[in-house]
Amino acid sequence: MARRVANTKHFKVSKLLAERLRLMSPGEMLPTIEELKRKYDCSQATIMQALDRLRMQRLIERPSGKKRIVVAQNGVAPKFRLNLIRPLWSSPDYDGMTNRVYELGHKEHFGFGLYIYSDIEELNIDDALQNADAGLMFGNLDMSPAQITALNGSRKPIVFLRDKPRGVRAGSVWVDDLAVGLLATGHLLELGHRRIAVMLSEPPNPSSSTRLEGWRQAMAKAKTKDIDSLIVDCSVESGVDAMSGSYARLCQWLDERPLNFSALFCVGWTGALAALRAFRERGIRVPEQMSVITFASEAPICDFTAPPLTAVQVDLDHYTREVIRLIEENLAGGEPEITTKDIALKPHLVIKQSTAAPARLTFPEPVSAKLVFER
Question: How far apart are CA 110 and CA 103, in angstroms?
């Protein structure tokens, strides 16, 4: 069976080369064929196919009378060269954020490169910033002391998009996750819900933990008893698909105990999608019998669910503008307090069709979960 183009070696090499071209100036020569073969560990035929793709995209050209391939002249030399540093695992939130940064950055004539690490222990700061003026990084709190020292000693500024480790002297743009939990839970309390559960779906991380703390504070203020029993921990390990993994764990949770809540706050939208499916399969109607609210992060997914999800969201354009502004301040050679500036973005509530006031209804018996609702 023929492989899809996206799965072929030459396609993957062309994508890697395209990222490298973003860091090069028009007219700059590409490495030789032999150098490219060694770098990407592939055959000459694969390299030639990859170059053909880039030539069709008008990203490279061979000037008349010349033997070497160069970056096409129809581009504009980048004002700054930025390397995006991120983990290998897939994340729709990461992808949505970085695509928007790319889009706005290119309008400002930034060039972009990509540095991916599969394990935080493999992250080499010098390599990650090679051939770049600055770095954009999705942080990891498990960074070693040596890595933190390397970050602090770097002459090239780094802006963290999330999870800046303690002790790192760098700028950051992040979401006020405590406000996320307070806002989501507060909305459900205003509707009249008192038994409000919280669902974890993503691998354990500071953002989810802080949203959970916001839920705790709101529930404590409402004087809800035994709130620990309302924590539905369906979190998965790093590298595991959070949507399918949390769905499987939630199904098991629902099938093993009575349901004693009338509303659910999902700290990640992956959990919300899992919950909508699990409730639908058990005859639990949203929002008539169960209200669901989530943190939508930067993803537009809530508009495409049934019903559309009420969500706490972040203005992605605002997020991106702050990232770009902070980078420009860093590269303009500002004072140290500018370099280490932390910008916290306030979330906002978008009310849609997945939340409603609790109703006293006689529910149909679900497939395998007995419903016991309390007010």
Answer: 10
Among 30-44, 76-90, 261-275, 324-338, the range scoring the smallest mean pLDDT is 324-338
Task: Take residue 333 and report the two structure tokens written for it.
Answer: 């050679």
Two tokens at 90?
Answer: 């897939």
186, 162 Cβ separation under 8 angstroms: no
Single-letter residue type at 284:
I
Q: HSE, CB side, 13 Å, CA atoms: give it for residue 135.
A: 25
- Return the closest-CA partner of residue 122 out of 171, 83, 166, 86: 86
Query: What is the distance between the alpha carbons of residues 244 and 273, in angstroms, rounded to a whole number?
Result: 9
pLDDT tens profile 166-217: 899 899 998 899 999 999 999 999 999 999 999 999 888 888 999 999 999 9
Question: Whole-structure pTM over 0.85, yes or no?
Answer: no
Which residues, in sequence order, are bridge partners of residue 297?
Answer: 313
Q: Residue 225: which of 183, 261, 184, 274 has the closest Cα?
A: 261
CB count within 10 Å of CB 63 equals: 11
Residue 335: its pLDDT value, please? 47
Q: In angstroms, rounded to a whole number, what is the distance separating the alpha carbons of residues 289 and 301?
A: 22
